[in-house]
Design a protein that fits this description.
The structure is a single chain. The protein folds into 2 domains: 1-52, no CATH class; 55-179, Up-down Bundle (Four Helix Bundle (Hemerythrin (Met), subunit A)), CATH 1.20.120. It is flat, with a radius of gyration of 24 Å. Strands 1-2 form a two-stranded antiparallel ribbon. A two-stranded antiparallel sheet has the order 3-4. The protein is mostly helical. The chain has helices at residues 55-67, 73-100, 103-106, 108-134, 137-184, and strands at residues 4-7, 14-17, 24-25, 32-33. Helix 4 (108-134) runs antiparallel to helix 5 (137-184). It has 5 helices and 4 strands. The termini are far apart.
Amino acid sequence: MTGWIEQDAQSENLTITSLDGEGNSCPACGFRNPLRETLCLACAGPVEVQKAQSRCGQIDAQVKRVRAGAVAPEEFRGWLEDLSAKMAEKSRAIVDYIHAQSYRDDSPDEVANGMAGIEAFEAGLSDLWQYTFDLESDRLDRGIRQVWEGNDLILEAMRLNRETRETTSLAWERIEERIAEARCA
């Protein structure tokens, strides 16, 4: 069930029904608001918005559940299969884009960081996968470390991409200004 607002036709009063399940509870009145609401729908007080858990955070949390015995190795393996399929699809799309656009020549540092990040991430998933067969806890440690290292490299590639786009955007703005000045002269 989700939350909803109803208006009483006779008194024009609003009745607000709280959310079941996911949502952010208002610290003032306890009303459960939709995830993205920053103000409580019931009392208009501020609500702290929960951020979505990162992919690495999800993996880390799952590894902690495995260590605690809350998730069996076979169940973890199935979870990793689903995750690996999603990540492989994203990796293929990125690699295809790099090759199709000759991106490697234009942004070599970004591509190097991104590709190294993908490789480290995949190596980490592979170690986690191997754990489900041999139950060597060192694989969990090494796997999660590699996943985080891969994530850091991917984030660096994204930072470089933003930096390049900003530089390119500024260069285009200057060119457009010069063209406009030339037209006015």
